[in-house]
Amino acid sequence: MKPVAFAVARPSSLPEAAKLVSDNSAAKIIAGGQSLGPMLNLRLAQPNLLIDITGIPELTHVKNDVDSLTLGACITTADIEDGRIGADALPMLAQIAGRIAYRAVRNRGTIGGSLCHADPAADWTAALAALGADAIVTDGARQRIVPIPCLIRGAFETNINPVEILQAIRIPKPSPRARWGYYKVCRKAGEFALAIGAVYSDPERGAFRAVIGATSGPPVVVTDASAIFDGANSLQPKARLDETATARLLPAASREHHGARGRLYLTALARATEEAQAQ
After folding, report:
1. Does 2 map to a domain?
2. With bands split at pLDDT 50, 70 and 90, how would you rate the model's confidence at 93?
3. Quick check: is 147 in a domain?
Protein backbone atom coordinates (compact mmCIF):
# COMPACT_ATOMS: atom_id res chain seq x y z
CA MET A 1 0.00 0.00 0.00
CA LYS A 2 0.94 3.65 -0.26
CA PRO A 3 0.43 6.37 2.33
CA VAL A 4 -2.14 9.12 2.00
CA ALA A 5 -0.87 12.44 0.67
CA PHE A 6 0.96 14.62 3.19
CA ALA A 7 3.12 17.72 3.33
CA VAL A 8 6.61 17.79 4.90
CA ALA A 9 8.06 20.48 7.17
CA ARG A 10 11.69 20.61 8.29
CA PRO A 11 12.02 22.94 11.30
CA SER A 12 15.48 24.09 12.34
CA SER A 13 14.74 24.71 16.03
CA LEU A 14 12.74 23.20 18.87
CA PRO A 15 10.42 26.24 19.23
CA GLU A 16 9.64 26.07 15.50
CA ALA A 17 8.94 22.33 15.70
CA ALA A 18 6.78 22.75 18.80
CA LYS A 19 4.71 25.45 17.07
CA LEU A 20 4.12 23.16 14.08
CA VAL A 21 2.97 20.41 16.44
CA SER A 22 0.65 22.68 18.40
CA ASP A 23 -0.85 24.23 15.25
CA ASN A 24 -1.70 20.90 13.60
CA SER A 25 -3.22 18.09 15.62
CA ALA A 26 -3.06 15.76 12.59
CA ALA A 27 0.71 16.17 12.18
CA LYS A 28 3.24 13.44 12.95
CA ILE A 29 6.86 13.85 13.97
CA ILE A 30 9.38 11.76 12.05
CA ALA A 31 13.09 11.11 12.67
CA GLY A 32 14.42 7.72 11.55
CA GLY A 33 11.01 6.56 10.34
CA GLN A 34 11.65 2.88 11.11
CA SER A 35 8.30 2.54 12.88
CA LEU A 36 6.28 5.37 11.35
CA GLY A 37 7.24 4.50 7.76
CA PRO A 38 5.50 1.09 7.73
CA MET A 39 2.51 2.60 9.56
CA LEU A 40 2.19 5.21 6.84
CA ASN A 41 2.34 2.60 4.09
CA LEU A 42 -0.32 0.50 5.80
CA ARG A 43 -2.37 3.65 6.45
CA LEU A 44 -2.44 2.94 10.15
CA ALA A 45 -1.25 6.54 10.45
CA GLN A 46 -2.72 9.18 8.12
CA PRO A 47 -1.15 12.56 8.93
CA ASN A 48 -1.55 15.57 6.68
CA LEU A 49 1.86 16.86 7.76
CA LEU A 50 5.14 15.14 8.60
CA ILE A 51 7.51 17.17 10.77
CA ASP A 52 11.09 16.07 10.10
CA ILE A 53 13.06 16.95 13.23
CA THR A 54 16.43 15.54 12.19
CA GLY A 55 17.78 19.00 11.31
CA ILE A 56 17.41 20.38 14.84
CA PRO A 57 20.90 20.60 16.41
CA GLU A 58 19.78 20.05 20.00
CA LEU A 59 18.36 16.67 19.10
CA THR A 60 21.72 15.22 18.10
CA HIS A 61 23.68 16.83 20.94
CA VAL A 62 25.58 14.69 23.46
CA LYS A 63 26.35 16.07 26.92
CA ASN A 64 28.86 14.08 28.93
CA ASP A 65 28.85 15.22 32.57
CA VAL A 66 30.60 13.77 35.60
CA ASP A 67 27.48 11.95 36.83
CA SER A 68 25.35 11.52 33.71
CA LEU A 69 25.26 11.17 29.94
CA THR A 70 22.57 13.08 28.05
CA LEU A 71 21.71 11.94 24.53
CA GLY A 72 19.67 13.95 22.06
CA ALA A 73 16.51 12.18 20.95
CA CYS A 74 17.74 11.87 17.33
CA ILE A 75 20.91 9.96 18.23
CA THR A 76 20.71 6.74 16.22
CA THR A 77 21.07 3.25 17.62
CA ALA A 78 24.06 2.76 15.29
CA ASP A 79 25.73 5.85 16.82
CA ILE A 80 25.44 4.16 20.20
CA GLU A 81 26.52 0.74 18.94
CA ASP A 82 29.61 2.15 17.22
CA GLY A 83 30.75 4.19 20.24
CA ARG A 84 30.28 7.60 18.62
CA ILE A 85 28.65 9.13 21.72
CA GLY A 86 31.54 8.92 24.20
CA ALA A 87 29.77 6.49 26.51
CA ASP A 88 32.84 4.69 27.89
CA ALA A 89 31.29 4.82 31.36
CA LEU A 90 28.13 3.13 30.06
CA PRO A 91 29.34 0.15 28.01
CA MET A 92 25.97 -1.54 28.41
CA LEU A 93 24.45 0.96 25.94
CA ALA A 94 26.55 -0.28 23.02
CA GLN A 95 25.86 -3.91 23.86
CA ILE A 96 22.11 -3.34 24.03
CA ALA A 97 22.16 -1.29 20.81
CA GLY A 98 23.95 -4.07 18.94
CA ARG A 99 21.14 -6.52 19.73
CA ILE A 100 18.35 -4.34 18.34
CA ALA A 101 16.73 -5.43 15.06
CA TYR A 102 19.12 -5.35 12.07
CA ARG A 103 21.95 -3.03 11.09
CA ALA A 104 19.88 -1.25 8.43
CA VAL A 105 17.28 -0.42 11.10
CA ARG A 106 19.93 0.65 13.60
CA ASN A 107 21.49 3.00 11.03
CA ARG A 108 18.35 5.14 10.93
CA GLY A 109 16.30 4.28 14.00
CA THR A 110 16.68 6.80 16.84
CA ILE A 111 16.65 6.28 20.58
CA GLY A 112 13.99 8.96 20.99
CA GLY A 113 11.84 7.56 18.22
CA SER A 114 11.84 4.16 19.89
CA LEU A 115 10.69 5.66 23.19
CA CYS A 116 7.98 7.79 21.58
CA HIS A 117 6.64 4.86 19.55
CA ALA A 118 6.19 3.04 22.88
CA ASP A 119 6.15 -0.47 21.48
CA PRO A 120 6.01 -2.80 24.51
CA ALA A 121 8.62 -5.07 22.85
CA ALA A 122 11.14 -2.24 22.33
CA ASP A 123 14.59 -2.63 23.87
CA TRP A 124 15.30 0.96 24.86
CA THR A 125 12.22 1.34 27.05
CA ALA A 126 13.15 -1.61 29.28
CA ALA A 127 16.91 -0.97 29.24
CA LEU A 128 16.66 2.73 30.11
CA ALA A 129 14.12 2.05 32.85
CA ALA A 130 16.60 -0.37 34.42
CA LEU A 131 19.37 2.24 34.23
CA GLY A 132 17.21 4.85 35.97
CA ALA A 133 17.16 7.24 33.00
CA ASP A 134 14.98 10.33 32.61
CA ALA A 135 13.34 11.79 29.52
CA ILE A 136 13.58 15.53 28.91
CA VAL A 137 10.52 16.81 27.06
CA THR A 138 9.86 20.35 25.89
CA ASP A 139 7.12 22.49 24.41
CA GLY A 140 9.76 24.73 22.81
CA ALA A 141 9.85 27.14 25.75
CA ARG A 142 9.95 25.02 28.90
CA GLN A 143 11.37 21.63 29.76
CA ARG A 144 10.12 18.98 32.13
CA ILE A 145 11.71 15.77 33.36
CA VAL A 146 9.84 12.46 33.10
CA PRO A 147 11.37 9.27 34.54
CA ILE A 148 11.46 6.63 31.80
CA PRO A 149 9.16 4.24 33.75
CA CYS A 150 6.56 7.03 33.81
CA LEU A 151 7.01 7.97 30.16
CA ILE A 152 5.18 4.92 28.78
CA ARG A 153 1.48 4.96 29.65
CA GLY A 154 0.53 1.83 27.72
CA ALA A 155 1.06 0.05 24.44
CA PHE A 156 1.92 2.79 21.89
CA GLU A 157 0.92 5.49 24.39
CA THR A 158 3.20 7.96 26.17
CA ASN A 159 2.89 10.71 28.75
CA ILE A 160 4.25 13.27 26.29
CA ASN A 161 1.62 15.95 25.78
CA PRO A 162 0.37 16.66 22.24
CA VAL A 163 2.30 19.97 22.12
CA GLU A 164 5.55 18.49 23.50
CA ILE A 165 8.61 16.93 21.87
CA LEU A 166 11.08 14.49 23.39
CA GLN A 167 14.34 16.43 23.45
CA ALA A 168 16.84 14.16 25.19
CA ILE A 169 17.44 11.22 27.52
CA ARG A 170 19.61 11.64 30.61
CA ILE A 171 21.27 8.47 31.91
CA PRO A 172 23.06 8.30 35.29
CA LYS A 173 26.60 6.97 35.11
CA PRO A 174 27.30 3.83 37.15
CA SER A 175 29.99 3.41 39.77
CA PRO A 176 32.81 0.88 39.29
CA ARG A 177 30.88 -1.61 41.46
CA ALA A 178 27.77 -1.59 39.28
CA ARG A 179 26.51 -4.82 37.70
CA TRP A 180 23.93 -5.13 34.98
CA GLY A 181 22.33 -7.74 32.78
CA TYR A 182 19.96 -7.65 29.83
CA TYR A 183 18.36 -10.59 28.05
CA LYS A 184 15.54 -10.92 25.56
CA VAL A 185 13.74 -13.95 24.22
CA CYS A 186 13.14 -13.87 20.43
CA ARG A 187 12.17 -16.48 17.88
CA LYS A 188 15.29 -15.47 15.97
CA ALA A 189 17.88 -12.71 16.18
CA GLY A 190 16.55 -9.34 15.09
CA GLU A 191 12.88 -10.09 15.64
CA PHE A 192 10.64 -8.43 18.20
CA ALA A 193 11.14 -9.72 21.72
CA LEU A 194 8.66 -12.12 23.28
CA ALA A 195 10.06 -11.35 26.72
CA ILE A 196 12.72 -9.00 28.11
CA GLY A 197 14.55 -9.13 31.43
CA ALA A 198 16.90 -6.44 32.77
CA VAL A 199 18.63 -6.05 36.12
CA TYR A 200 20.86 -3.26 37.41
CA SER A 201 22.66 -3.05 40.73
CA ASP A 202 24.87 -0.17 41.90
CA PRO A 203 25.40 -0.28 45.68
CA GLU A 204 27.37 2.98 45.69
CA ARG A 205 24.42 4.80 44.10
CA GLY A 206 21.78 2.96 46.14
CA ALA A 207 20.23 1.47 42.99
CA PHE A 208 18.91 -2.06 42.63
CA ARG A 209 16.29 -2.40 39.88
CA ALA A 210 14.71 -5.14 37.81
CA VAL A 211 12.59 -4.72 34.70
CA ILE A 212 10.31 -7.10 32.80
CA GLY A 213 9.61 -5.93 29.26
CA ALA A 214 7.68 -6.99 26.15
CA THR A 215 4.46 -7.18 28.17
CA SER A 216 1.10 -6.13 26.79
CA GLY A 217 1.70 -2.62 28.14
CA PRO A 218 4.43 -0.63 29.89
CA PRO A 219 7.36 -2.57 31.33
CA VAL A 220 7.09 -3.90 34.87
CA VAL A 221 9.69 -1.92 36.84
CA VAL A 222 10.77 -3.15 40.27
CA THR A 223 12.49 -0.13 41.81
CA ASP A 224 13.65 -2.12 44.85
CA ALA A 225 14.65 -5.49 43.46
CA SER A 226 15.51 -6.86 46.89
CA ALA A 227 11.82 -7.82 47.04
CA ILE A 228 12.37 -10.45 44.35
CA PHE A 229 15.92 -11.45 45.34
CA ASP A 230 15.16 -12.84 48.81
CA GLY A 231 16.04 -9.57 50.51
CA ALA A 232 19.52 -9.22 48.97
CA ASN A 233 20.42 -5.55 48.57
CA SER A 234 22.56 -6.01 45.46
CA LEU A 235 23.35 -8.51 42.70
CA GLN A 236 25.94 -10.31 44.76
CA PRO A 237 26.86 -13.78 43.43
CA LYS A 238 24.68 -15.49 46.04
CA ALA A 239 21.58 -13.44 45.27
CA ARG A 240 18.85 -15.69 43.85
CA LEU A 241 15.75 -14.70 41.94
CA ASP A 242 12.53 -15.57 43.76
CA GLU A 243 10.40 -16.75 40.84
CA THR A 244 7.23 -16.98 42.91
CA ALA A 245 7.51 -13.35 44.02
CA THR A 246 8.42 -12.28 40.48
CA ALA A 247 5.46 -14.13 38.95
CA ARG A 248 3.07 -12.06 41.10
CA LEU A 249 4.31 -8.92 39.31
CA LEU A 250 3.58 -10.18 35.82
CA PRO A 251 0.70 -8.81 33.72
CA ALA A 252 -2.64 -10.49 34.37
CA ALA A 253 -2.49 -12.57 31.19
CA SER A 254 0.82 -14.08 32.29
CA ARG A 255 0.38 -14.22 36.04
CA GLU A 256 0.24 -17.99 36.29
CA HIS A 257 3.66 -19.12 37.46
CA HIS A 258 3.66 -22.12 35.18
CA GLY A 259 1.99 -20.45 32.21
CA ALA A 260 4.02 -20.56 29.00
CA ARG A 261 4.11 -16.79 28.60
CA GLY A 262 4.96 -16.20 32.23
CA ARG A 263 7.75 -18.73 31.97
CA LEU A 264 9.36 -16.67 29.19
CA TYR A 265 9.45 -13.55 31.39
CA LEU A 266 10.96 -15.46 34.30
CA THR A 267 13.55 -17.03 32.00
CA ALA A 268 14.54 -13.65 30.54
CA LEU A 269 14.99 -12.12 34.00
CA ALA A 270 16.90 -15.16 35.27
CA ARG A 271 19.27 -15.02 32.26
CA ALA A 272 19.81 -11.28 32.79
CA THR A 273 20.65 -12.02 36.43
CA GLU A 274 23.19 -14.66 35.43
CA GLU A 275 24.80 -12.22 33.01
CA ALA A 276 25.11 -9.58 35.73
CA GLN A 277 26.53 -11.97 38.31
CA ALA A 278 29.16 -13.18 35.84
CA GLN A 279 30.68 -9.71 35.60
Report:
1. no
2. very high
3. yes
Flag whether pLDDT at 260 surpasses 80.
no
Taking alpha carbons only, the member of 36, 53, 111 closest to residue 78 is 111
| Integer angstrom CA distances of residue 10 from 17, 54, 155, 270 | 8, 8, 28, 45
48/80 same-domain check: no
State the average pLDDT for the chain: 93
Residues 189 and 247 in one domain: yes
> Is pLDDT above 70 for 56?
yes
Task: Check residue 255 and give its pLDDT.
Answer: 55
